[in-house]
Amino acid sequence: MDDGTVTGEAAQSEHRELLLDLALLVSERRSLAEIFSAFAESLLGATAFAHASLAVLEPDPRFMRVVGSFPPAVQPPPGDDIYPTRDAGLETVAAAPGGTEYVPAKVDLPFARFMADSGLQRAWTIALVHEGRTYGMFTVGRITNTRFNESELTFLRSVARLLIGAVVEEARVAEARVEAARSRILSELAIALGEGKPVETLFDRLQGLLAQALDFDFLQLSVLAAPGIVRVVGNTNPGVFRQNEERYPLSEIAVDAILAKGSTVAQYRSDRLDSPWGREMHAAGFTRFIASVLMEGENVLGVLDIGRRRNLSFTPEDEAFARLVSTLLAQAVAQSLRLERSETEASRSRLLNELALLLSTGEPIEAIFDRVRALMGEALPFDYISLSTYDGGGMMRVVGAVPPALYKPGDRLSLGDAESGGFAAEGAALVQFRTDRAEGVWPEAFARIGLSRVAVILLRHRGNTRGIFALGRSEGRAYSADECAFLEVVSMLLGQAIGNLARLAESRAEAQRATVLNELSLHVNAGQPVETLFDSIQRKVREALDFDFLALHVSTPEGFRVVGLEPNIAIRATAERSGEEIGLGAIFSPGQSIAEYLPADREAATLRAMANAGLERAVSALLGEPGAPLGVL
Q: Is the pTM of this model over 0.90?
């Protein structure tokens, strides 16, 4: 079109028609974008203007949003609808109520440079102000350097007044829509809370509705899972930094820094946070965040994080809304924690009651362990559980271990490994440790099977060590004081059970041994030869004592002769052997008549033969006086 000016009656008539068209568009209550698009098309087709644009302030007044720019190439930058208000010089424009005329090429502002680069030589801009509040700005331009005449300026100011009405109306409608959406969200959350819905349900509803009430690109809710530990309930972008259900230390949220400012809500920029969270969020393109702490009284229950890719500040109204949402979420978390505590206490009471019952009925320790394992999952979740009993000689026998990746039932362990790790320290009933920070055989073994935190409890009964109970989990979170107290009660009952069973077994063994000794005395008094007596001895002794090998040497003038072997695995019956050959000097100290030993540790032909046959531990007793033995059993 010809960019020359139109003057006189023709121009005024043209302006009146355009103003009437704009008034009709505004009265039809179309969207602001539709109104301006239709008006700009008429404006550029009927006047000497080559450009028209309308921009409105964002809730964050540092930024403006382009409602329409015609032709589209003339906007900063092309294709982007939001830009800083300082780039358009809005503050300067707003200081001139009647509008500002300028040559774009002579103005050192990005917005003016965009116009100059698009061929506009002269422009006029006016701020859209209503009741002292700036809502945006309206700009026209032309490709010639012809000044705007008074008729054009009067017309453009009238256009601005009509546009102000449409802009204010749309802003009010948008604010009302947001307020309604926020009320609806709070109502839905309150209803779900009243129905006792879990916090996961509240988060799902919040996630589905929040876009109607708040501009956001990222949403994450983390709630208290254990003292000092939070878990991610939900995350709109689970591929970024945190996964759903992931647990992490509460200290990483910097709650103290937020609360120190006297508020439960804080805004921040990810690129200004010197933390893994800040770096990861910034790398993923999320710039502006609001963190709202979930509180119940003085207790921190979690945090709600809302993020935006653009650096658009959250308004005070946004912060107030986030605070209300967090209050409802906190109530849901507190409700869930109370229920969880109640269920946990019930589970722990049930376990202790059943354990006490099993204790009174004298159930075998294997059955007791199986029941403890079955009930412990609800009372105190675990990834590893094991029970070992002391079987004498500094060794432990594994009663049960789940999973059996490290030990299996029946395995024998050295109690010294526990003592060297400090687990059997005097007065320490329970010791917990991080497997990557403790030294010793056990921590290294636990770490190999994926455990990060282990609690080891020494089972004692009447001052005697009865066994070791261990519980472990893959996360490094420490066992709380309540959890430790519960484990100590469980361990006390287990220690008592093992002690009771040991006393019962000992009483039965003593009774059996007395019977065996009485029967053996009858054979001896009957005057049977020693060879015949050996058969009776090995048969009867087995009734009272568990063993894998039994041998009897008797003294002769030439040395010692084997009169019996059961089974015949280690020593061949041959001619008489000397006392040194059968290990008298290696086994017995002066004046000693009975000794327990490891055959592999002693230097004697007979003892080496026993060790080679797989015998690990043995006990020998002299027959008669130590100085002149009649034989060796």
A: no
